[in-house]
Amino acid sequence: MNLMERLRNTLIARLRRYSVVGLVRLACWVALVGLAVMAASIIDPAPLTVIFAMSVGQVIGIVAFLCYLLSILMDVVRGTDHLPEAPGPAQKFREPNSTGDVPGSS
What we know:
Elements: H1 3-17, H2 20-43, H3 47-78
Helix pairs in contact: 2-3
């Protein structure tokens, strides 16, 4: 096993431990903070406030977007294979034709 495979397996194991729902919520809260920073430039339209709001607000927005993209990546990597302690779609919402849901199939 080379270094890249070991890093990939470690990253996938860490992604499976964390909650996709929690990361989406974090992305929403960070986006709201970015929106508040942007709104500050409308409330006080001084040049420094506008420059601060546009630069810092953009960084906060990028962080929120990256959190959302990471949550999508985590959901794609997980597929239907969830650890018991990781929240995700319930068994009743999965497709009935998947091999894990049909008794007696292998």
